[in-house]
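Researcher: I need the complex structure. Ligand is iron/sulfur cluster. Inputs:
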Amino acid sequence: MKIVVDYNLCESNARCVEAAPDVFEIRDDDRMYILNENPAVDQRHAVDTAVANCPRQALRLEE
Ligand code: SF4
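Model: Output:
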């Protein structure tokens, strides 16, 4: 799986970080960074939750 973010939609509100802190991070520049674009299978549930919880629908997964 690969995580794709649309930075035109992302507003850095950190909902994805709450769901999957090993995968997403907000840095000092207030921008969201993906720490691992291709997370392991055991992170799938957390990543799915992050995608579902993003209020801007800025995240999607490619298989
Ligand atoms: S939850 Fe969505 S809008 Fe918020 S930081 Fe993550 S990708 Fe951006």
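Model: Summary of the prediction. Residues 44-53 form the longest helix (10 residues).
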